[in-house]
Design brief:
alpha+beta, three-stranded antiparallel beta sheet, 16 helices
Amino acid sequence: MSKKRGVGRKPKFRDGMTNIVNGLANRRSAVATNVITSTRLDDTQLRAIFKTGLGAKIISIKTGYALNDTLQFANDKDEELYKRRLQRAVKKASKFMLGFGRGIILLNERGADLSKPLTGTLDIAKVKLDVFSDDLVTPMNISIDLNDARYQKPKTYSVRGKSFHWSRVIDFTYYAPPELDLPTYRYGGISEFEMIHTQLINDGIVERASGAILEKNSTLFHKIKGFADAVRCGDDDYLISYYAKLAEIRGIYGDGLIDGEDDVISIAQTLTNLDAVDNITIRRLALVTSIPVPLLVGESVQGLNSSGSQERQSFQDMVENLQFDYLEDPIKELCGHFGINEVCFKENQGGTATERMDFETKVIDNALKLESMGEDGRKYLVAHDIIKDDPWDKLFAPPPEDDLTAGLQP
């Protein structure tokens, strides 16, 4: 019986180039023998990383730089309302968004049916803001209608057994997965920890190994007469138990006790490239988180003539992308429910105090040039947050000339 063509044969590797002389080179090709895979981290792992030092620091750095004094408002009253009643909830939801892929703020209005749509402006005195991470949220009534504004989004959120209409939920979602994977992520986002999981594992391995490396820097070897025969006969258990006790006694600061008939030699081992291995794990973490190494580990910029300007610029680009892609829309939605209709992120956030002063000086120079051209220089200064419009000036401003002469027309 003849086999069908291709059945029973080993699959051939294809990576764009085949060595016709050495078949082993084809089998050893990294491209041909490896594939990239991803694993959905469960909530238990996400909670564990969220509580660890490295995970907590990454979240703290990103949310701190993205939300600490970075918003601007139309007037001082709106700014005071945000800082007094909304700021803490926004920052907490942002941390949950990064750590779990989603963080929600529930507009828990007293006396209202929370399963019904929200209408009108809310009274801040009657609303309690509750913040939850994605592991406590169950999305329901997912729309699959392409014409629906809530396509592939939940119309109802269930938290602690209570249903909330989507209009009463401010949903902070992080990096969006492919559409086919949305059900796996509860129609939310992908956690920051899942995207850097490999780097976190590698850093943990290096950290765990460092203690053992110090312990084994100078290794003792016991020369035991008849040890090989004991192993062959299965009588090595008592020997292993004996020397295990010795190993426990001996430590970095301890002395060893042995029998007078034993012979012990010490082998000094030179550890090479340990600092390079530790450095590469930190650099990979900095790469995937977009947090520069000096900022991540809290050290100064290394190297001659290094000012750190490139590191600050790269980090600021990451912060601004985080603000624009994931924070601006939900913050505006939350503020709009309480009558704060003009809120946005400041343009001149990054850099040192001297760099911000240089930016403001250039803006003022440009405003003077616009004035000399007959343009509105004040409007340019307001747009770049150099000066703010005074609401009292608007209130007592004289009416336009067209309004003054409107009643005088024949």
